[in-house]
Amino acid sequence: MGEPTRIQERAYYRLWYPQADRPTLAIGAQKFEVAEISEEGARIVPSGSFGHHHGEAFTGVLRFSNGESDTVEGVVLRSTPDEVVVKLTTGVTLKRMMSEQIRLRQKYPAALRSPEDPSGKPKS
Predict the structure, then answer these.
(1) Is-contact 23 70, C-beta < 8 A?
(2) Based on the number of CB atoms within 10 Å of its own CB, is 53 exposed (0-12), middle (13-18) or buried (19 or more)?
(3) Following CA atoms 89, 93, 94, 96 in sequence, which dihedral angle do they give, to the nearest 10 degrees?
(4) Residue 117 has what pLDDT?
(5) Do residues 70 and 24 make contact, with C-beta atoms less than 8 angstroms apart?
(6) pTM of this prediction?
């Protein structure tokens, strides 16, 4: 018998970004790095105060390293000094997710894990 097939239990694929290539989220005059995105969520690395707390809504512009951007809206799910996790009500399109995945796999082939490893964390 072959190996068991892993089932994706998440509703949306998550895309992890290497630190050198992270998109930025601009909310007003503040800018934050985005470590991970999906079509309906993001993990933000705050530099100082994020300014929004659990349950609060926000609107911002997500700018990618290729210069393209998307306007996003969301609500804060949880916040720690190290990360802010948000649910996007207006988020990143599937087309953008696919193009970003292709771009990152081409640019960082050794840094991204294979599909068999769903953690999305970089190889050590």
Answers:
(1) no
(2) exposed
(3) -140
(4) 47
(5) no
(6) 0.76
